[in-house]
Amino acid sequence: MTKIAFIYPGQGSQTVGMGASFLTDERSKGFFDIADEVLGIQLSKLMLEGPAEELTLTYNAQPALLTVSSMITERLARAGIVPSYTAGHSLGEYSALEASGVMKFETAVDIVHKRGLFMNEAVPAGEGTMAAILGMASEELQKVTNEVTDTTGVVQLANLNSPGQIVISGTKAGVEEACRLAKENGAKRAIPLDVSGPFHSELMRPASQDLAEVLSKAFLLDAHVPVIANVTAEPETNAAQIQDLLVRQLYSPVLWEQSVQKMIELGVTVFIEIGPGKVLSGLVKKIDRSVTVLPVNDLESLEKAIEELKK
Q1: Beta bridge partners of 4
Q2: Are 81 and 309 in contact (CB under 8 A)?
Q3: Is 200 tagged catalytic?
Q4: Could you read off the pLDDT of 129-183 as tens digits, one per residue?
Q5: Model confidence pTM above 0.70
Q6: Separation CA 68–CA 19 (nearest Å)
Q7: 229-271 pLDDT, tens per residue?
Q8: Has 69 been annotated as catalytic?
Q9: pLDDT tens digits, one per residue of 31-52
Q10: Structural domains present in the chain
Q11: Which is catalytic among the residues 200, 208, 252, 259?
Q12: Which is it for the CA torsion 243, 41, 273, 159, positive or negative?
């Protein structure tokens, strides 16, 4: 039997107009309506009409991506497509948890909006940043970030995305110095990222404390489909453990490459990327070219995926 994983993108995948092709369906449109009502803002208008600069703000992008991902998940479920595992990249983990029954959509959209606000407030603008390092092994890059943290400023591995693609995060000075040293030590490229903060670094500890308080009041259930957690790259089902991991996720590396490898070890042969863009599809293919990857981001790609899975 084919084992399917649902995987969900994180921040950066949002685009104006995302989800529009699904809105002729009342049940799909309901996700947009619920998000507007829960958050008390016209999130749906922002998603459909922009402006892009406002949609990109952390506290808007997070609930927007979750809304579209959850809506598409429901359409797949209606077509009888269910996963053996779910996983999401950073913010995408909340979409995975909603799909796995850990939290209702209303709860998830409220939490990720607050998560975005906490992340936005944790570090003053301009003090923290991130960069992608290409063509360097994680062990070698770890040595570089340890050295820079001791001498210049906090910097650490933030996203282990695929072989040869690692994102680092920390203070502006720390990241800049780590980029310089990484290139000196054999990295092919160091690319500064256009982000609003040093996500998945120790500098997010204040945000994690605020998030812990919000999560402690939320109603979470054990997962009915195992979620591969960012922090452990292991299947998790226990609600209390998942709650703890979501707090740690804010200041810990996203073990994406290891998560994909774990799902393949567990027998997954088909990955369905649910939500805008195809970033994760590209990463999965870099990790293992033998698996099938189906991005689903609009009505056309949904129908194509359903057709493919019926074969």
Answers
A1: 270
A2: yes
A3: yes
A4: 999 999 999 999 999 999 999 999 999 999 999 999 999 999 999 999 999 999 9
A5: yes
A6: 6
A7: 999 999 999 999 999 999 999 999 999 999 999 999 999 999 9
A8: no
A9: 999 999 999 999 999 999 999 9
A10: 3-122+203-310 (3.40.366.10), 128-195 (3.30.70.250)
A11: 200
A12: negative
Question: Which of 73, 66, 69 is CA-nearest to residue 109?
Answer: 66
Give the burial string for 169-180 (b: 16+ CB within 10 Å, else e): bbbbebbbbbbe
Instruction: State how far the alpha carbon of 263 is from the alpha carbons of 16, 187, 228, in Å.
Output: 31, 28, 8
CA-based nearest residue to 245, from 263, 227, 218: 227
310 confidence band (pLDDT: 50, 70, 90): confident
Q: Name which of 193, 182, 188 is nearest 132 in CA terms.
A: 193
Q: What Rg value do the Cα atoms of the chain yield, rounded?
A: 19
Annotated active-site residue in 13, 90, 95, 281:
90
